[in-house]
Design goal:
It is built from 5 helices and 5 strands. The chain is of the alpha/beta class. It has a single domain (4-124), classed as Response regulator (Rossmann fold). It has a 5-stranded parallel sheet, with helices on both faces. Helix 2 (35-45) packs parallel to helix 3 (61-70). The longest helix has 16 residues, at 109-124. The two termini are 14 Å apart.
Length: 125
Amino acid sequence: MAETILIVDDNAMNRKLFRVLLEKSGYEVVEAEDGKEGFDLAKKVIPSLILMDIQMPGMDGITALKAIREMDATREIPVIALTSYAMQGDRERFLAEGFVDYISKPIDGKLFLATVRNTLAQYHG
């Protein structure tokens, strides 16, 4: 059975790119347009991994991550930050918030998939 990955990003083009890359690699993909929808889907689906945009209208990625970490059913799901922030120190800041890794946008397809594979192996290996 394929592992399920939840993509949470308010940009439809980003979601499509991530979905195509992941589905071609054999993963099942579910998508949400914002943090609230992502949190609700995480509770319902219990994905193997969540890819979370940081800047979204309504509930942002950091707030959604905190909500996910507060629920027993979703607390252990690894969440990778997806962000166009690429400033020095951002990786450390996102890891300190509780994300397990960080991918900057625009993404490098090979690095993106390697990060997904490595994270899944580390948490579900």
